[in-house]
TrEMBL record, chain A:
InterPro entries: CO_DH_flav_C, CO_DH_flav_C_dom_sf, Diverse_Substr_Oxidored, FAD-bd_PCMH, FAD-bd_PCMH-like_sf, FAD-bd_PCMH_sub1, FAD-bd_PCMH_sub2, Mopterin_DH_FAD-bd. Gene3D superfamilies: 3.30.465.10, CO dehydrogenase flavoprotein, C-terminal domain (3.30.390.50), Uridine Diphospho-n-acetylenolpyruvylglucosamine Reductase, domain 2 (3.30.43.10). This is Xanthine dehydrogenase family protein subunit M. Coiled coil: none annotated.
Automatic annotation (TrEMBL), chain B:
The lineage of its organism: Bacteria, Pseudomonadati, Pseudomonadota, Alphaproteobacteria, Hyphomicrobiales. This is (2Fe-2S)-binding protein. InterPro entries: 2Fe-2S-bd, 2Fe-2S-bd_dom_sf, 2Fe-2S_ferredoxin-like_sf, 2Fe-2S_ferredoxin-type, Aldehyde_Oxdr_Iron-Sulfur, Beta-grasp_dom_sf. Residues 2-78 form the 2Fe-2S ferredoxin-type domain. Gene3D superfamilies: 3.10.20.30, [2Fe-2S]-binding domain. It comes from the Bacteria. It comes from Tardiphaga alba. It holds the Pfam family Fer2_2.
Length: 268, 161
């Protein structure tokens, strides 16, 4: 790890000021992406701004027709929260599938979204549910926020403070785990919303999370696994690596989408 | 340099450290608590698992400065020198849950975390799923799973948490 200066702000505003002041500064939340990257010397921030001592940004609550989760909420908190389990059980399940128990005790939803790893789980839920990403400056829709591989719309002094998920009628997440890393080889999130149906895929796309409109159209007519029969996903633009070819991933997307619809329907 | 102070195994410690210091380095090199091991150094193997405010975390992926003001418990904190072993340690001894012992401190800290979250009656498949972040290269896991199931039960009637 290269040398850096360490800062510990106690408010979001202080953190934003520090970010603005130091050109090569980086925020740290759970550190479970940033610390490994720094250990490999793939990042050399001059200053590290520790968000973990800021209070009041890790809450989980229902506000009107939305579930609001603070950026510093840990994966384990989301996975075990009775509020999440009741409002959007698919989201609790998704959080419980991230990494392993010790990783879930440190990693945060804000860190995961800011990082926008193409194989991360949360982006699938955020885009499928049409969630709003709230920062210290503005509110962003998933389509503007996610901008491809490890890239988001976040500006250099912008900090995610919370994520607001509108409550779906039905939703489910199905993940095919990479056996070694436990990241998603393919993950499919299906949500039936008052406004329609959304199907998103993580782990498979070269540019990160994406929607499958052909599936959405079919499921809007009939929200049943059968509705997806005969609709193939093209392997174009999908990842191909030693864990699975683009064709294999394309096939998995169809299989997992059907399972997700089934799971969503069976959840009463 | 950065000043850190925390409670480690019940004792307050304060040191001036390079902010780059990982929690596992801090424990092993500054405090000489060498029961916490480094296996992979990439957050995969769980040899470095300690409890931070009562929850299992990987000390190789945590900066020591991030533990400032918090409580850390390591394998050395489970039972005092000369005192009887913690029931989970005793269960690993009794059920041959270790061979070389390298992964064992991390396994035991993870096992106790599982009991805190999932209770004392643990089915084998639950233990196996919960162990996904801990790797052992010697045992084949059968005896680790048996040890954790027995240790979880024994913890029910013990004062040691
Ligand atoms: C062994 C292992 C297995 C994993 N498996 C999975 C998995 O299966 N699925 C999965 O989705 N993830 C997985 N992860 C990633 C894990 O979930 C990370 O914790 C998470 O992606 C990053 O969150 P963090 O809080 O640790 O962020 P950090 O590492 O602290 O930060 C990550 C990045 O986000 C920025 N950042 C952090 N918080 C904010 C904020 N509030 N606003 C703006 N920017 C911010 C930081 O500056 C940094 O660039 C795994 C990690 C490990 C180590
Ligand atoms: S040394 Fe920390 S997980 Fe392997
Ligand atoms: S007992 Fe040798 S690594 Fe587990």
């Amino acid at each position: 790890m290269y040398e850096f200066k360490y800062h510990r702000p106690s408010t979001v505003r202080q953190a934003a000021n520090l970010l603005a002041k130091h050109e090569d500064a980086k925020l740290i939340a759970g550190g479970h992406t940033l610390v490994p990257v720094m250990k490999q010397r793939l990042a050399a921030p001059s200053d590290i701004i520790d968000l973990s001592h800021i209070e009041g940004v890790d809450g989980i609550e229902i506000k009107g027709r939305s579930l609001v989760i603070g950026a510093l909420a840990k994966h384990a908190d989301v996975a075990s929260s009775p509020t999440v389990a009741e409002a959007i059980p698919a989201l609790a399940e998704l959080a419980g599938l991230i990494g392993d128990p010790a990783v879930r005790h440190k990693g945060t939803i804000g860190g995961s979204l800011a990082n926008n790893d193409p194989t991360a789980d949360y982006p699938a839920a955020v885009m499928a549910l049409g969630a709003t990403i709230v920062t210290n400056k503005r509110k962003l829709k998933p389509e503007e926020f996610f901008q491809g591989l490890f890239t988001t719309a976040l500006e250099s002094d912008e900090i995610i403070t919370k994520v607001s998920f509108p409550l779906p009628k039905k939703a489910a997440y199905q993940k095919f785990r990479n056996q070694a890393s436990r990241y998603a080889l393919v993950g499919v999130f299906v949500a039936r919303l008052p406004s329609g149906v959304r199907v998103t895929v993580t782990g498979a796309g070269q540019d990160g999370v994406f929607r499958v409109e052909a599936f959405e159209e079919a499921l809007k007519k009939r929200f049943l696994p059968k509705a997806l029969d005969g609709i193939d996903v093209s392997p174009d633009g999908l990842n191909s690596d030693l864990h699975g070819s683009a064709e294999y991933r394309a096939h998995l997307i169809g299989v997992l989408a059907k399972r997700a619809v089934d799971a969503a329907n069976n959840r009463a | 340099m950065a000043k850190v102070s925390m409670i480690v195994n019940g004792n307050p410690v304060a040191k001036n450290i390079d902010p780059r210091t990982l929690l596992v380095q801090f424990l092993r090199e500054e405090l000489r608590l060498t029961g916490t091991h480094v296996g992979c150094d990439t957050s995969q193997c769980g040899a470095c698992v300690v409890h931070l405010d009562g929850k299992a975390v990987k000390a190789c992926t945590t900066l020591a400065v991030m533990a400032d003001g918090h409580e850390v418990k390591t394998i050395e904190g489970l039972a005092a020198d000369g005192a009887p072993l913690h029931p989970m340690q005793e269960a690993f001894r009794e059920h041959h849950g270790l061979q070389c012992g390298f992964c064992t401190p991390g396994m035991i800290m993870t096992a106790i975390d599982i009991v805190h979250r999932k209770g004392h009656d643990l089915e084998d498949h639950v233990i196996r799923e919960e162990l996904e972040g801990n790797l052992c290269r010697c045992t084949g896991y059968q005896n680790i799973v048996a040890s954790i199931a027995a240790g979880a039960k024994a913890m029910e009637n013990s004062d040691l948490a």
